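User: Hi! I'm working on a homework problem where we have to compare a predicted structure to a textbook description. Could you give me the structure for the chain below?
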Amino acid sequence: MTAVPLAGRRVLVTRATYQAGNLSEGLRALGAEPVEVPVIEIQPPQDFAPLDRALTELANPLATYGWLILTSANTVHALADRATALGLNLSAISQLNVAAVGESTATAARGEGLRITLVPETYIAESLASSLAGQVAGRRVLLARAAVARDVIPDALRAAGATVDVVDAYRNVMPESAPALLREAMQKGIDAAAFTSSSTVTHLADAARHAGITFPFAGVAAISIGPITSATLRELGWEPAVEATQSDVSGLIQAVIHALAPR
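Assistant: Happy to help. Predicted C-alpha cells:
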C-alpha cells in the first residue's frame, strides 16, 4: 500500500460540523479530499421539562435510578449543558451506574466527571442492551438519547425486568445549508460517502431530495460505520460497499481505505 492510499479521492463527510474534524483529518492524512456536507445539526429538545425533571432527580442523593444510559457523545454534552443551566453537578453523582454505548461516548462522559461502569464490546445499541440485560432486573433506568431514536434499548431492558424512563436530550435536524452544499459537492464529483449513523443516511437522503439529486448516488461507494447504519442504507436502496469492522471513526477510515485504495 502506498503512503497515501486515498490520493485524489473525494470522500463525502456527513457528520455535524463540530464533529467532522477527526474523520476529515484522518482521511486527509491518507491523501483523500474530505468534502464536508454536514447533514446533522444538534438542537435542543422541543420541551426541556422531562429532561429537567430527570436531571434534578439524578442529582438527588435519594434518587432511585440505578443506571444512566448514554447513547452518544452528543447526549453527554446535552446533559452536561442542561445540568449546568439548572445549577446541577453531574460529577457529584456517585451512587449511579453509567453505561456508554461506545468508547467515544465514555470518553465524553468521563470528561464531564461521570464514572463509567460499562462499555459494550461492540459499539451498537443491541450490544449495549445485551450487556445490561442481566444487571437491570428490578432497577430503575434513565435512558437519555436523541428524539425519534430506535426503541431497541428500552424494549430490551423492559423485557429484562427494568423500569425504563426515556428522555429526549436533543434533536437531530438537517441544516438549511445542506442541500446547496450537497449540490456543489456532487457537481465536482465524489468517490464515496462516509456514514457515521443512521441519521446521517436519512438526512442525506432528505438533503438530496431538496437539492433535486437522485438518491442513492450512482457510482458512489457508501461506507458504513456499522450494521445499523448499513441496514438504514439498504432500506433506502443503497447497498454499502464496505461496513466497518470496528464501529468508530478509525474503523470507518479503514473501511474507506478498503473500498477505495488501489489493490
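For your comparison, note the following. The CA atoms of residues 183 and 212 lie 8 Å apart. The chain has two domains: 10-40+174-260, 49-172. Good luck with the assignment!
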